[in-house]
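for the recovery benchmark. tokens below, seq after
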């Protein structure tokens, strides 16, 4: 393994950490509706649990309402039950075959709690990035110990990995601030 491989590997893993963090942020709901909020809801379908998107069409009616149209007649009650039992705090209402999921407005107290959740998720993502930095530096140290690289190359490698870490943490901070602003916006 060369220094270039170590850097490339660290960069790829840090990008995956950012993607994972973005995915985590998308699960935190704001006052506005978006179809992705129901992605983690699973429905029982012929004995197995499947994602909601595989048994129904999920669309937005307006800024505060999600519409769920089951593809089969008998699935409405199961979908409604699955949404209600998910930990999203949503209360779906049936209108014939169509299920409407209104997004309740967030209270000020709940908004503050959600900003704490966002900050904690951001901190977890930063810790993951720092762990990746440590792993990359340990790999470079191992190459130095095995005399595969010089001390100058090791130092340059550590500096490059640190720059990459700083850039990634800065990106995470920006995402965190944007999500906090979104959560606090009334």
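predicted aa per position
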């Amino acid at each position: 393994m060369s220094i270039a491989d170590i850097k490339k590997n660290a960069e790829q893993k840090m990008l995956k950490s950012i993607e994972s963090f973005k995915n985590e942020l998308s699960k935190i709901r704001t006052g506005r509706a978006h179809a992705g909020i129901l992605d983690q809801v699973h429905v029982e379908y012929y004995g197995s649990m499947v994602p909601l998107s595989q048994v129904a069409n999920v669309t937005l009616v307006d800024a505060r309402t999600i519409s769920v149209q089951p593809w089969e007649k008998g699935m409405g009650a199961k979908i409604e039950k699955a949404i209600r039992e998910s930990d999203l705090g949503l209360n779906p209402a049936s209108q014939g075959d169509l299920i409407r999921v209104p997004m309740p407005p967030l209270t000020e107290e709940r908004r503050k709690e959600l900003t704490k959740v966002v900050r904690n998720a951001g901190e977890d993502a930063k810790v993951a990035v720092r762990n990746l930095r440590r792993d990359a530096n340990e790999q470079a140290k191992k190459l130095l110990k095995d005399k595969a690289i010089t001390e100058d190359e090791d130092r340059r490698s550590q500096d490059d990995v640190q720059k990459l870490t700083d850039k990634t943490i800065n990106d995470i901070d920006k995402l965190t601030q944007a999500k906090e602003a979104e959560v606090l916006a009334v």
